[in-house]
Amino acid sequence: MTFSQGSSDPLRQAGDELADATVAALFARGEVGVFNTLMRHVSTAGAPLPDGLPGVARDYLEATSAPPAWVDWAEMERARLFFIDNNVHISTALSFASMPACYVVPHVAKLLSATHSLKYPAKRMAETGQFTVYLMQPDAFEAGSRFIPAAQKVRLLHASIRHHLQRDDLWDTRTLGVPICQEDMIGGQMFFSLTVLDSLHRLGIHMSTEGAEAYYYAWRVVGAMLGVDQEAVPKSLDEARAFMDRYMIRHMGPSREGAHLTRQLIDLYEDVVPGTFFDPVVSALIRHLIGDTCADWLQVPRTRWDTLVKAVPHLLGVLETIEDRSPLGAWALDRLGHLTTVFELSSLTRGRVMHYAIPEQLKKDYGVTDSVPPAKRWTPPAATVSP
Questions:
Q1: Range of 323's domain?
Q2: N or C: which end of the chain has fewer CB within 10 A?
Q3: Average pLDDT over residues 59-68
Q4: Is there a domain that residue 30 lies in?
Q5: Count of domains in the chain?
Q6: Residue among 176, 215, 205, 213 nearest 82 (CA)
Q7: For residue 278, what pLDDT is reported?
Q8: 376, part of any domain
């Protein structure tokens, strides 16, 4: 598939027909509050839907209760094992590369700033971490799992933001396209898959081509469940690179909202890390993973740790070599990674479960209309040259 401005422009005018219709009906009938209240009790797949649930919501939940028919379950299991092997590194990449990469796209930063949840940055980070953990459970798509209800709610959350911004004339659709349009949803899929893989490579993590491809495949499945048009989604990592290069060249740049969200992110993780001595590591790691240009746009401060952080791949390389050569070492490092991920998630959630509710209104104080062995390691696809 060839990605060009001609192929991307129509994606900026497309939302998610099913979710958009569901949310519009809920708001028109004044049923959003009832839906949010009842859906707090729907947290596992296969659980009976509560009495009193609006009919349009029941229809939506039934229509989206199963993964796509084309899912390759063997590939999904490879993705799960890849996640287990690299969970702490993936969590690092999601926090310090994927999220800042979203903020580098000004209109995406503006969208994120428009919701109540970004007033509390821990909430969005907790939701992202919890969502990924749910996805990578062995029973993620079976009865009793938490992933499918989470995906259903996130899809409606996106539709509700589109609804608010368009209904209240808070978004320049002519210039920016539909809020959370198909192109941006595909871009988000790239941030949480390809950007993570790029970051693992930059950190010196050993990973096979098969593992990288499986992880990317898992996020294609996620995209399908979140309403992303799979006909437009890159099918391979090479195609993903071509899309991502085109997307970032079209849209990336500095913005007030991007800098503000990044500052919130840095403050959040500086609070998670005990003491203050290691606080500059947060900024240094973000700068290392997204590069100086993007870091400068986001006003990531330069620190005394910027040079030291560049030694992280060498340290991780030693640990990865131990893991490759010793089954006991692999078990110990995987267990440590699991515990680290659990600690980070528990610190962000404060032990609570994130419910992904539909916001009944946007922030009143924000004006959106203001402008394996080394020889087999995976290497990122080469950057493409846009015509």
A1: 18-360
A2: C
A3: 94
A4: yes
A5: 1
A6: 215
A7: 62
A8: no
